[in-house]
């Protein structure tokens, strides 16, 4: 049992000695500081969403439609009374939180994935490693504790299988298949800067280190600039699988015995289809608004997906979480855990490991306090009685 709420006491006690937090505590504050201090390209890639960014805005607005119901007389407001630990897809976590799979962290930190792996291991929460990482699977696995591997399924099954089996060999505890990115969304912030990091060889570490991918190349990419460019073009031709269907999960099951979750589902029928095909989990997500402008807010679809899946699979959530109270809303609607994205990436760029630690401890601290005020002693006991439905 971890006293995450105690973080606020640490901050106040440090204040007696004249020390204040190095970074903003709120997600909005981190975004504002990041815009001022990170490169234009890095900030645009992290912050940007599709089109007019209506989906990203809808994700945030959806949380405003729910209200938590405080129950202070249940004896749960003292931190010692609470246990936030959960088990999700067979992975034990100190709280129902994992860092979302975000690629190309080298835009903000040279060893970003390793830093995040180390900090989440320290805190006892989970991390999900992106296929588009800047550090190879094996290096991150050596630094991580509770971690899952996120697969962008390429249109080459030998490469897909190799990536999955490397992840399992490196200690991954689940495979997360992202299905909402068969192609890149229309992202004006990146377009205005003509900046796509993959074409510069960034975010390709897992491909360039993969034997099955390298076997498709006529010349190793390290041999020359021309060979490196050829490898990038090979990746361009391989990324995105427009033919992927629910039945393909049966093939993935042949490659691994790890739990499989499908990320990028916002329609109940699609959730039922992937569970029928063998998925152990569904992650309700619209990719943080980065793929389709004007799409439905992910939170609005969480309840319907939970109801459709029932007890046949575990449901998780991402897209729009910005604070601990948001996590409580997602749990109340039936999510077993949430994936938390952009704010800790800003913190990584601004403050390295210390920044990530502060951002995650702030989220966990608020979550701990909020669960207590809502009258729950355990995170896995939170249900729809915690919220006023819109």
UniProtKB/TrEMBL annotation:
Family matches, as Pfam families: FMN_dh (PF01070)
Residue ranges annotated for the FMN hydroxy acid dehydrogenase domain, each copy included: 19-390
Highest taxon above the source species: Bacteria
PROSITE patterns, per database record: FMN_HYDROXY_ACID_DH_1, FMN_HYDROXY_ACID_DH_2
Coiled-coil annotated residue ranges, if any: none
Necessary cofactors: FMN
Keyword Oxidoreductase tagged: yes
Keyword Aminoacyl-tRNA synthetase: no
Keywords carried by this UniProt record: Oxidoreductase
PANTHER family named among the record's database cross-references: FMN-DEPENDENT ALPHA-HYDROXY ACID DEHYDROGENASE PB1A11.03, S -2-HYDROXY-ACID OXIDASE-RELATED
Homology family: Belongs to the FMN-dependent alpha-hydroxy acid dehydrogenase family.
Protein name, entry field: Alpha-hydroxy-acid oxidizing protein
Species for this entry: Skermania pinensis
């Amino acid at each position: 049992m971890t006293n995450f709420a105690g973080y606020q006491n640490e901050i106040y006690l440090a204040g007696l000695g004249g020390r204040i937090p190095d970074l903003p505590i709120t997600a909005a504050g981190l975004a504002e500081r990041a815009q001022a201090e990170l490169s234009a390209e890095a900030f645009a890639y992290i912050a940007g969403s599709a089109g007019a960014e209506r989906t990203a805005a809808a994700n945030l607005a959806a949380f405003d439609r729910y209200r938590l119901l405080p129950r202070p007389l249940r004896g749960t407001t003292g931190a010692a009374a609470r246990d936030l630990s959960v088990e999700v897809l067979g992975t034990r976590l100190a709280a129902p939180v994992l860092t979302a799979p975000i690629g190309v962290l080298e835009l903000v930190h040279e060893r970003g994935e390793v830093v995040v792996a180390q900090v989440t291991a320290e805190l006892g929460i989970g991390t999900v490693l992106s296929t588009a990482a800047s550090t190879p699977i094996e290096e991150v696995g050596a630094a991580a504790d509770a971690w899952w591997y996120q697969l962008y399924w390429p249109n080459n099954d030998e490469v897909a299988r190799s990536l999955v089996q490397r992840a399992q060999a490196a200690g991954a505890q689940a495979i997360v298949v992202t299905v909402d990115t068969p192609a890149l969304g229309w992202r004006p912030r990146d377009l205005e800067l003509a900046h796509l990091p993959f074409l510069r060889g960034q975010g390709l570490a897992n491909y360039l280190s993969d034997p099955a991918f390298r076997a498709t190349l006529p010349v190793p990419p390290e041999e020359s600039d021309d060979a490196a460019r050829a490898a990038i073009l090979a990746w361009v031709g391989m990324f995105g699988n427009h033919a992927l269907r629910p039945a393909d999960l049966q093939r993935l099951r042949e490659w691994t015995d790890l739990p499989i979750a499908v990320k990028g589902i916002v329609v109940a029928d699609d959730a039922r289809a992937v569970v029928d095909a063998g998925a152990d989990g569904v992650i309700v997500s619209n990719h943080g608004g980065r793929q389709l402008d004007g799409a439905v807010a992910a939170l609005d679809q969480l309840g319907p997906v939970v109801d459709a899946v029932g007890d046949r699979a575990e449901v998780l959530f991402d897209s729009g979480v910005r604070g601990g109270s948001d996590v409580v809303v997602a749990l109340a609607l039936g999510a077993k855990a949430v994936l938390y994205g952009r704010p800790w990436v800003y913190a990584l760029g601004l403050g390295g490991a210390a920044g990530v630690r502060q951002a995650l401890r702030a989220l966990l601290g608020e979550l701990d306090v909020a669960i207590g005020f809502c009258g729950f002693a355990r995170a896995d006991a939170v249900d729809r009685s915690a919220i006023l439905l819109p």
